């Protein structure tokens, strides 16, 4: 599995990778026979979708996301101020209009012609994983 944070960021979380380089990395990953890519960067997801057969959108309510982010804690040991700024950014998910927003993800999901699944609760995720493990 590839975490798009590791593609988007050149170092831990302070220097963004050149967008053309990041897109080329994703295109190379998505050219493999089997792959899973996870992340919120819609502009990078769009590169991968050209080769995708299935799209799964985890569209959880903010309180569920916040609980998970708080449980995880600061990513890569980020300072408190940086973590709080990240939480503010994450909270604005439904208000933003760029490719990392709800609207951006909705557009990718609606435009995807392959198999797709939108999971909106932890129970739906658990059921999906249980069924997938049995297949």
Q: Care to describe what's here?
A:
The protein is mostly helical and 135 residues long. It is 53% helix and 10% strand. It is built from seven helices and four strands; from the N terminus they run βααβαβαααβα. It has helices at 4-8, 19-30, 42-49, 62-72, 80-91, 102-111, 122-134; strands at residues 2-3, 37-38, 54-58, 115-119. The strands form two sheets. Strands 1-2 form a two-stranded parallel sheet. The longest helix is centred in the last third of the chain and has 13 residues, at 122-134. The chain is globular, with a radius of gyration of 15 Å. 10% of the residues are buried. The mean pLDDT is 93.
Structural class: mainly alpha
Strand order across the biggest sheet? 1-2
**Poorly predicted tracts of residues:** none
Share of residues in helices = 40-55%
Radius of gyration, in angstroms, nearest whole number? 15 Å
Compute the number of helices.
Answer: 7
Order of helices and strands: EHHEHEHHHEH
Total beta-strand segments: 4
Task: For the record, give the distance between the C-alpha atoms at the N and C termini, rounded to a whole number.
Answer: 19 Å
Largest sheet: 2 strands, parallel
Strand content: 5-15%
From the spread of the alpha carbons, the general shape counts as: globular
On the 0 to 100 scale, the average pLDDT is 93
């Amino acid at each position: 599995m590839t975490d798009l944070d590791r593609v988007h960021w050149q170092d831990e979380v302070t220097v963004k990778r050149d967008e053309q380089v990041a897109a080329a990395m994703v295109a190379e990953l998505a050219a493999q026979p089997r792959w899973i890519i996870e992340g919120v960067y819609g502009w990078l997801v769009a590169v991968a979708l050209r080769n995708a057969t299935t799209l799964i959108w985890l569209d959880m309510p903010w309180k569920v996301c916040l609980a998970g982010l708080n449980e995880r804690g600061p990513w890569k040991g980020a300072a408190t101020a940086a973590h709080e700024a990240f939480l503010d950014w994450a909270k604005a998910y439904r208000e933003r209009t760029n490719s990392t927003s709800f609207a951006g993800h909705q557009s990718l999901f609606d435009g995807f012609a392959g198999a797709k699944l939108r999971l909106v609760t932890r129970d739906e995720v658990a059921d999906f994983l249980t069924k997938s493990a049995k297949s």
